[in-house]
Amino acid sequence: MPIYNSPDLHNSRLLLWNINESESELISSIILTDYSKSRLKKIKSNIQRKQFLGVQNLLKLLEIKNDELSYDINGKPILNNQYISISHSFNYCGLVVSPNKVGLDIEKLRPKVLNISNKFVSAFEFNLIKKANIRNITKIWTIKEAVFKAFGFPSINFKENIIIQSINDDFDKAIVKIYKNDLIEYYSIEIINFSQYICSVAIQIK
């Protein structure tokens, strides 16, 4: 069921879904195209099938027909008249649509993120967050993943090419720079905490 519905997040729309329904319940409320049926058929994991169907239900809530959604060669979702980003983690899924380039990432709080933090957190960013605990490091990961998804180009070094320039006192907002060669973009970040999860939304600053 939907647990978060933001109708105006910097002119963007964010929806999150707690997947506590059965697969048959999820599929009963939507009409899948042949393309979507073929995608679902290829998914073997039960939780991934439910995540896929949860997203289809979110599309329905936004009155987006699932045949309006396609994917590029890198697996990035595409809509004709606006930008979209999709994420899922365990029993949660979400999507965001925006007139600007946008990225979404949802991650469950897990201790193992601390073991890899040096691969994506710079010395400046460690100093910025003050406390390198599970929650703060997970926030950094979701921020960078969301910005990476919005940026839309592969082969990005998360530590060097995605730079968190500033955060607010509550660390629920940030400004981020990402670059590749001569292309530079800036993103405004909104961070949402729920249950044992962190969700970051990255919206391009024009």
Features:
five-stranded antiparallel sheet; 11 strands; 206 residues; alpha+beta
Describe the structure.
- By secondary structure, the protein is an alpha+beta fold.
- It is globular, with a radius of gyration of 17 Å.
- It has a five-stranded antiparallel sheet with strand order 7-11-10-9-8.
- About 25% of the residues lie in helices and about 35% in strands.
- The chain has five helices and eleven strands.
- The two termini are about 35 Å apart.
- The mean pLDDT is about 95.
Radius of gyration: 17 Å
Q: Low-confidence parts, pLDDT < 50 over ≥5 residues?
A: none
> Helical content, roughly?
25-40%
Strand order of the largest sheet: 7-11-10-9-8
Number of helices: 5
Give the biggest sheet: 5 strands, antiparallel
Q: What percent strand?
A: 35-45%
Average pLDDT number:
94
Task: Specify the structural class.
Answer: alpha+beta
Number of DSSP-assigned strands = 11
User: Distance between termini?
Assistant: 34 Å
Write down the secondary-structure element order: EEHHHEEEEEHHEEEE
**Spatial shape:** globular
What is the topology?
Blueprint: E1 2-9, E2 12-18, H1 23-28, H2 34-42, H3 46-61, E3 70-71, E4 77-78, E5 83-89, E6 92-98, E7 102-108, H4 123-129, H5 134-151, E8 162-167, E9 173-180, E10 183-194, E11 197-205
What's the gist of this structure?
The chain has five helices and eleven strands, in the order ββαααβββββααββββ. The chain has 206 residues and is α+β, with helices and mostly antiparallel strands. The model has no long low-confidence stretch (mean pLDDT 94).
